Amino acid sequence: MNKQPDPAPVEPANVDLGRRHALQAGGLAIAFLWLGTGGTASAMISARRQAGDGAAAQADGNPSFAPNAFIRIDTSGKVRLVMPSAEMGQSIYTGCSMLLAEELGVGLDQITVEHSPPSDELYGIPLLGGQITGGSTSTRATWQVLREAGAVARSMLVSAAAAQWHVDPASCTVDRGTVHHVASGRSLGFGALATAAGKLPMPDKVQLTDPKDFKLIGKPMRRVDAVDKIKGATQFGIDVQVPGMKVATVMACPTFGGKLASLDDKAARALPGVIEVLRLDNAVAVVGEHFWAAKQGLHALNIHWDRGENANLTTQQLRDGLADAARHGKGIPARNDGDQPQGTLVQSEYRSPMLAHATMEPMNATVHVTPDQCEIWVGTQVPARAQQEAAKITGLPLDKVIVHNQYLGGGFGRRLETDWVEQAVAFAKQVPYPLKVVWTREEDIRHDRMRPMYHDVISAVVDADGKPVWYGYRTSGSSVLARFAPAAMGKDGMDSDAVECVAEIPYDIPKGKVEWIRHDMPTGLVTGWWRGVGPTHNLFVVESFIDELAHRAKQDPLAYRRALLQKSPRALGVLNLAAEKIGWGAQPLPARTGRGIAVAEPFGSHVCAIVEAEVTPQGEVRLRRVVVGIDVGIAVNTSSIEAQVQGGLIFGLSAAMYSGLSIKDGAIEQGNFNDYRVLRINESPLVEVHRVINAEPPGGLGEVGTAIAAPALANAIFAATGVRLYQLPVDRALLVQSPDALKSVAAASTDTGRVPA
Amino acid sequence: MLSLSVNGQSHALDVPDDMPLLWVLRDVIGLTGTKFGCGVAQCGACTVHLDGQPVRSCVLPVGAIGNRTITTIEAIGATPAGQKIQQAWLEVDVVQCGYCQSGQIMSAAALLQRTPNPSDADIDAAMSGNICRCGTYVRIRAAIKQAATGTPEILQTLVSAPQGAAP
Amino acid sequence: MIRLLIAIVLVVLLGAGAYVFLNRADTSDGTAPALAGAPVSSDVLARGEYLAKAADCTACHTVPGSGNAFAGGVPFKLPFGTIYSSNITADEANGIGSWSDDEFVRAVRNGVRNDGQHLYPAFPYTSYTQLSRSDVLAIKAYLFSLPKIAQANHENQLSFPFNQRWAMGFWNAVFFKSQRFQPDPGQTPQWNSGKYLAVALAHCDECHTPRNFAFAMKHGDELAGQELQGWRAYNITSDPVHGIGAWSDSDISNYLSRGHADGRGTAAGPMAEAVENSLRYLNPTDTAALVAYLRSVPARTGDAPVTVDAAAAPALASNNAAPGGDSANANDPGMKLFEGACASCHQWNGKGQQTPYASLLGTRGVNDVHGTNITQVILHGTDLRSLGANIFMPEFGDAYSDTEVAQLSNYVIGHFGNKQGTVTPDDVARRRKQL
Ligand code: FES
Ligand code: FES
């Protein structure tokens, strides 16, 4: 990591990323730092830039006061805030609203929020090179700029009031949408000031609120989108209704890169409610009056696929290829501090599976293509990319493609892609009416852009005390970045995501050598971002291995880590906090129950999770409790920090416990929650989140819990059973205490196991 | 022609008998609060009440409903249990992406209706059929208890809504 | 020395004679009793189609979902290897397009192919032998009216000596009798029609009658139930406790035509296929005839008898959405699995929520302590299209461990059958391998 070029200077008004902080940007985000941000940065998110053209303003309802792309105030005093990021559950609408509202001087109860239209220029995040919500970057990227945007607006409103009252603006105060002049007892609402403020020039400099005076930031605030969400009133992409719309569902060739060979649609077309059967090279869609008709139609199709070159692909082939690459492939160095010192070499190999996102809302998009326009309603993390792709497919100019972003029923990185939007546009192009394309869950899982599979070889040279003096890491996997943003690939074709959280580690190990061996998947098998991305496997490996080293040194894993973290105060801080809160070592645990620690610095934050798990004699794992210590710097919304960490952990534990896609005869075998299993409430642990309070700039949050979950679980299982898991998901067969334990299953689970409470 | 009573309103519908209620609600009647998550009764996103009982509408053929009345998320706030649950959901700030939450609330309201003071085991029994990919389970559990007892739960950070909090 | 040789020759000759004698076929045409769904006088194709459905040719000769009707290729895992059904479309090269009427009749009724090779009794010629010649030819006419499909036959994978087709002659000599259906003049015409359906066409006994060590049906134990290909075909004798003697006529006919009888059970696995492909197409009069015949089958206990507790206490103490008034042991692993993946449909009281097909209470599946069929259903799911229903349950085998499936099975047996289940992870592992 020490070899990477310095990020080019960023506009100070935009993003404040110190070098140390930038290096910890993490995941999807850090990749783009390799690009440098000069040039493009100035064309992105800004506190002072306004939607230029009149059409946009009109679509916006011609608000009297719209000093920048985020704030619209009309004469009634109604405050609308336009959100630069997409809301997929991470509470960013609330966070952004808090930043804007804090400086603007309104309460969250006084605003309404709106999705932004696609525009890299207005809403692009330099850290990501565009209008992208991902990589746990939103708060980090908008933290300064949105506060400043709010302050700009407030300053203009205050100036308008001061001018009217002929007083010094500095003598005015703002509170809950009203400007006050205390000395004279006068006050005016934002609505009354909107027109006048709209005519004022933009201030060059604004004063941001001193953090000690924050009214909203740093408090646990209720989400701005909660009320609609509990009433079923929130419109997600799948809920869009456009007059004249028909509904389609699709089936794409089950193999990677296969094609449609022939299709007999007679029976399908004869079904009531079926309107049309559409074809693409590699997929078919049935259009119906409603989803049910479309689905029945799909079922009635007789499809023959040309299964293509991957017709015989299996998971094992992929695994073997990766293992071979990790062991023998030529690596691209991410770090090399010189020769491996003499001493005892310890080495382990770890494997991580392909994972699906399984967002709760299956992929969908509603598209209406007419000869001179393409309108798209979709929940996306990348509205501007969706717009560009649709323009390519329809041949329309970019400004004729209108994207209406929607609330996302989960993102997790899946909605950073546009594959399903492209497919929907290609189908919709064939019909005159608006077409809502909804994937079945089976389609959603089988045609996911899955988290890549990895094979990692980790090693260390340890001294006589069992302390590592050198570490080595060889990771092999496909590159998401190379496809997603080829220009962001680093020196020598390095994918920074591949070595995130391992090229730099918080532990004081003097030297190391970290290499990435690029091993692409067969054509057609497309891998993608997944909540936590690179760190999800790197941390599983590093933190499992640190535990191995501690065990080898016959030391308590907490004490062992503490000794190695003396130079990383923030990591040590969260470790100590979590250990204290769970009461590490205070009381003996029941039989086959263990606690596992994982500590790391992903996404610019510092986190330690301690999982307490019980393993039954039959090998079933029961998650009892998780305690997390987290340091994200300044907290914007402390409530959503807790929620994000809890949710992220459960997402990560879910994957570690159960998930892994497998391929047989060239096709993904899993299809729905019966075979792509996820944690349910009765399997989920209690998750306590404790925060280190400081005034550091905010770190990323959305993926932190996910990235830290698996190693903490694996270490807990080791503590409970003495079995080290080198592969995910947890193979419960390895955890069986004895063959006799299995025989007892029959006797053990006699009902009426109903024991009075 | 089939007649369905949804949220107190009766609808005359020309749909096949074997069409699942979910799609009748969403694509024919236009009530989109009830969600599609799996279509195989595994996720609970499509939960509605049939005469007050929670059912998975994605596998419930409309032809089998008869005279029973349907209540969806759009109207559950009008029942005492639904109202309490929704209030607790706000106070604990349960939702994340929100997609599963219609189903969660419908299952929770049915639970509270039946068991005014549910234990953890009761919550497991009633709520385990509802998947949340965002992982809101910790707060769901807290909110159900809060709805039952009226006392704020320990794990909850939103002790009170500071001035200016969203309503 | 010479004497010894003569003796050997004699023995061989006698053996050969016996082989031929015992393999001799009944050459009579036979007559079929009246079937309401297949009027004799109407066109032969319609009759052939009805008979082909009643005989469930599809189940074995069409790979589900392939769209290649009667092109064969369905695998059958038997204790001694895997055999594949053959292409019976009129395709000359791969199917039976070149077969004469006599050759077809001989194959169906005597299990001998047009090239003289013996068929394995997985093909139920042991039942079809009772069919009348005109019925067999009606089926042939129907098959020949369908599209020819050029799909090559799959090699069987049988170990020695089971791969020696000629040896089937010995099996036939011992266990098989070529013989037409003989109406019993002492019984009603309805009963005779029912028997013809049961024993000749629908070949109920092929699955429901226990087999001996040599895979032959145990006579004297007809329809008393057995385990086959990992599924239990239940006792369907008139035994009121272990069979279907206590079922009402409409219970039985509903089960046959719809795959479900309230409080009795829902067809799954091979029986679901029989309903879907065959039984649901029976004319109601014919279904009634079949019921009348089944009622007359002597009561037998059979092996591994299942006793149904239709009022299992734990289930009765539960309501649709919550386990019983007494609080359940929240840590029972089987119960935890049930509440997550199963309760949404089956309900804690076992009544079935969205559809009565999901009801469990009173079924033999949950009362079989070996959990044979519930294990299979959990592992592989079900898919049943019958009269008025399109019912499925997803398969859980992929994501749930053997231990979990065993725990869940035992919980279900305990909760809904009020018995202690005996399913072990090993049982599950074994059943996983079966089709
Ligand atoms: S959509 Fe009905 S349970 Fe998932
Ligand atoms: S809140 Fe997103 S799935 Fe539950």
Automatic annotation (TrEMBL), chain A:
Pfam families reported in the protein's UniProt record: MoCoBD_1 (PF02738), MoCoBD_2 (PF20256)
InterPro entries reported in the protein's UniProt record: Ald_Oxase/Xan_DH_a/b, AldOxase/xan_DH_MoCoBD1, AldOxase/xan_DH_MoCoBD2, AldOxase/xan_DH_Mopterin-bd_sf, N-heterocyclic_Hydroxylase, OxRdtase_Mopterin-bd_su_IorB, TAT_signal
Gene3D superfamilies per record: Aldehyde oxidase/xanthine dehydrogenase, a/b hammerhead (3.90.1170.50), Aldehyde oxidase/xanthine dehydrogenase, molybdopterin binding domain (3.30.365.10)
Superkingdom to which the source organism belongs: Bacteria
Domain named Aldehyde oxidase/xanthine dehydrogenase a/b hammerhead: residues: 231-309
PANTHER family named in the record: ALDEHYDE DEHYDROGENASE (PTHR47495:SF2)
Designated name of the protein: Xanthine dehydrogenase family protein molybdopterin-binding subunit
Organism: Dyella acidiphila
Automatic annotation (TrEMBL), chain B:
The keyword Iron appears for this protein: yes
Residue stretches making up the 2Fe-2S ferredoxin-type domain: 1-76
InterPro entries: 2Fe-2S-bd (IPR002888), 2Fe-2S-bd_dom_sf (IPR036884), 2Fe-2S_ferredoxin-like_sf (IPR036010), 2Fe-2S_ferredoxin-type (IPR001041), 2Fe2S_fd_BS (IPR006058), Beta-grasp_dom_sf (IPR012675), Diverse_Oxidoreductases (IPR051452)
Keyword list, A-Z: 2Fe-2S, Iron, Iron-sulfur, Metal-binding, Oxidoreductase
Gene3D superfamilies with a match to the protein in the record: 3.10.20.30, [2Fe-2S]-binding domain (1.10.150.120)
TM annotation in the entry: none
Pfam short name (any one): Fer2_2
Protein name, UniProt field: (2Fe-2S)-binding protein
From TrEMBL, chain C:
InterPro entries reported in the protein's UniProt record: Cyt_c-like_dom (IPR009056), Cyt_c-like_dom_sf (IPR036909), Cytochrome_c-type_DH (IPR051459), Membr-bd_ADH_cyt_c (IPR014353)
UniProt-listed Pfam families: Cytochrom_C, Cytochrome_CBB3
Alphabetical keyword list: Cell membrane, Heme, Iron, Membrane, Metal-binding, Repeat, Signal
Gene3D superfamilies listed in its UniProt record: Cytochrome c-like domain
Localization annotation: Cell membrane
Domain Cytochrome c: 43-147, 189-298, 329-416
Name the record gives this protein: Cytochrome c
